[in-house]
Amino acid sequence: SDRYTDPKSLIPFGDKVYSQSDEDGIIREIFNRIGTTNKVFIEFGIGNGLENNTLALLFEDWRGLWIDASTKSVNTIQKEFSPIIENKQLSIIESFITAENINDLISSKIGYDEIDLLSVDIDGNDYHVLDAITCTSPRVIVIEYNAKFTPPIMYCMDYNPTHTWEKDDCFGVSLQFLDVHLGKKGYSLVGCNLSGANAFFVRSDLVGNKFCAPFTAKHHYEPPRYYLSGYFAGHPAAYSTLIKSLTMRSLT
Question: Which residue among 31, 134, 188, 233 is least packed, with the fewest CB closer than 10 Å?
Answer without folding.
Answer: 134
